[in-house]
Amino acid sequence: MESQSRRSGRPERNLPVEAAYVCLPVYDGATLEALRSAAAALPAKDESRYHVTLRYLADASVPGLEKLAEAVGEICAAAPAFKLSLDRPGVFPNSPRVIYYAVAPAAALLELQAAVDEAVRSLGCKPADYAYNPHITLARGEGEAATVGPVSWPAETVEIRRSARGGRAGEILFSFKLGGT
Question: pTM for this one?
Answer without folding.
Answer: 0.86
